[in-house]
Amino acid sequence: MGDCYAKYFRLIRERLLFELKKRNINVINTAKRDGLVKELELGLANETEMIQDDISENQENQNIIWNSTYEFPLKSGWALKSKQKYGKKGGGKRISKRVWKLLEEYFLEGDVDKSKRFTATTMLENLRNKVEERELDEEEIPKLQTIQGWISRYSAQHRQKMAEMFLFKLTWNQPFPQTKVVRNIYQNIDKVEIR
């Protein structure tokens, strides 16, 4: 007998009779305590078996058997290549080349001089000033969220470009290609050297 039944050995006779009646187990009132304990143990074992049977029945009912007659939620042929819809991702309004150049100019100006760094809102304000000066049309001005996305994409591209230039410099162990004008005093000829 396990520990779970040990507590029933300590029960007094009246408590055993109460537990048996609660479980609808009929016993003779004159039965001894040991007999009552055995009856209660049998009743608890039957209760446990019934609970386990109920659990297994519920699991069987919950398991859905998939077969070919089961209705699939998507229409037949949904994955065929011919059914795919092609189009441009984000086919909305694009940033015009003039606005792109201005945004790039603002970004690079902030990259050169950190004190003049532009945020998306300051870029948008400058673009609106360009509209007031009639350099741009109102329709060309992107939303603030579009400018924020442009900044994140452009900064990633710019960082990658700078890293490639740095690797080029390390690989060839030379400074970046720069032009230098050398004046030949004797022949009065200007010559451009690329180092």
Walkthrough of the structure:
The chain is mainly α. It has two domains: 3-58, Transcription Termination Factor Rho, Rna-binding Domain, Chain A, Domain 1; 97-184, no CATH class. It has helices at residues 3-9, 13-22, 33-62, 97-112, 120-132, 144-172; strands spanning 179-184, 189-194. 7% of the residues are buried. Mean pLDDT is 75; it is low at 190-195.
Mind describing the biggest β-sheet?
A: 2 strands, antiparallel
Q: Can you count the helices? A: 6
Structural class by secondary-structure content = mainly alpha
Helicity, as a percent range? 40-55%
Content of β-strand: 5-15%
Oligomeric state of the chains in view: single chain
**Strand arrangement, major sheet:** 1-2
Mean pLDDT across residues: 75
Overall tally of structural domains: 2
Helix/strand order? HHHHHHEE
Distance between the ends? 95 Å
- Give the strand tally: 2
Low-confidence stretches: 190-195
**Overall 3D shape:** elongated
Gyration radius, rounded: 43 Å
